[in-house]
UniProtKB/TrEMBL annotation:
The chain crosses the membrane at residues 70-95, 115-138, 145-166, 178-199, 211-235, 255-276, 285-304, 310-329. Keywords: Membrane, Transmembrane, Transmembrane helix. The lineage of its organism: Bacteria, Bacillati, Actinomycetota, Actinomycetes, Streptosporangiales. The keyword Membrane applies. It comes from Actinomadura nitritigenes. This is Uncharacterized protein. The keyword Transmembrane applies. It comes from the Bacteria.
Amino acid sequence: MSTLEDRYRRLLGCYPAAHRETHGQEMLDVLLSAARPGQTRPSLADTADLLSGAVRIRIRRALSGAGTSLWPDALAITGFLALLLLMVETARFILNVPTLVDVAASLGHQGFGSYGLLYHFGTGPYWLAWTVIAMLAWRGLRRQATIGACTVAAVQIAFAAYGTAFQDYAYAYLGRDFAGTSLPLALLATASLVLSPGPRHGARLLGRARLAGAVTVAAILAVLYSYPAFVLFVGHRADTEPPHAMNALGAVVRTWSELQAAGVLAAAVLAAAALARDRTSRRALVLFALIGAPGLVNAAGGVLPNSVPAALMLLPGSLMVGMAGLFLADLCRRLVESPAGARARRRVRSSV
C-alpha cells in the first residue's frame, strides 16, 4: 500500500462505516487518480474537503436519526434535561422578582438607576429568551428554536468571556453571571437542537414516569434556590438581640446551604438511577455529567467553602470539572456495558 493511499484511507475513516462500505473505494480511486506524480501526502484542499464532508454526513445522520448510533438519542434526552434546568433558573428568577424589587426600593434611586436595574434584573431578558426557545421546541418549531438557541448561546459565550477576562471592566459582573451553570446548560440545549432529533424527542424517550419525576425534581430545586423559600425558612430564627443576631443568621445560612447541597446531591442520585436503565439513557447520563459535575462542585463549595478551590467555580475551572465528570461517567458506562459487566448483571438477575 502506498503512503498516499494509506493517508487517504485514514482520512476516509472519519466517515461513518456504512458510508465507507458504499462509497469508500470509489472515493479512494477518484482521489488517487487525481493525485500528482510523486505525491506522498493529501493536499490541504483535499484534506479540508474530506473532513468537512465527514462532518456534514455525520450531522445529517444525527439530525435524521439514521444509523445505529445511540448518541443522537442520548443528546436529545440530555438536551431536554438541559432545557428543563434552564426553565428552573427562569422560575427561580421569577420567584425572586418580588424580593429583588423590595431590595431595589430600599436602595432608592441607586436601586432603580440603570446600574441597579442591570444588577438586579439584568438577566431577565436572557431567561425570557430561553423560555421562548423552550416553547418553540416543545411545539415542534425546531428550526425557529435552533436559530434562537444558536443566537442566544453565541451572545452568552461572548458576554461570559468578557466578564471572565475583564473582571474590573464595566458590567463584567453581569458577564460572570452568564459564565455560571447556565452556560453549559445553554450549550447542551443548543447542541441537542442542532445535532440530535431534539429535546421533544428526548422527552418521549424518557417516558411518562421519568418525565414526571424530572419535572417534580426540577420544581423542588427551583423553590429550594429561591429567595422567598429562604426568607420563609429563616422566619423567626434570626430575630434575636445583638450581638447574637449575626451568629444566628450565619447558622441559618449554613443550614440552608446544606439543604441546597443535599437537594442537588439527591437530584444527581435520582438522575443517575433513572438514566442507568438502558444503553441510550446511560449515554445521556455521560453527557449530563458535563453540567452535573460542576453543579455538584458548586454545591460542595457552598457548604465547604475551604474545601473547593474558588477557581473550580469560575468558567475555565468549571469546564475542566465538566470534562473530568464526562470522562469518569463514560468510563463507568464502558465498564457496565463490557462483556464482564453484562455477565455480572445476568448473574445478579438470576440470583434474584
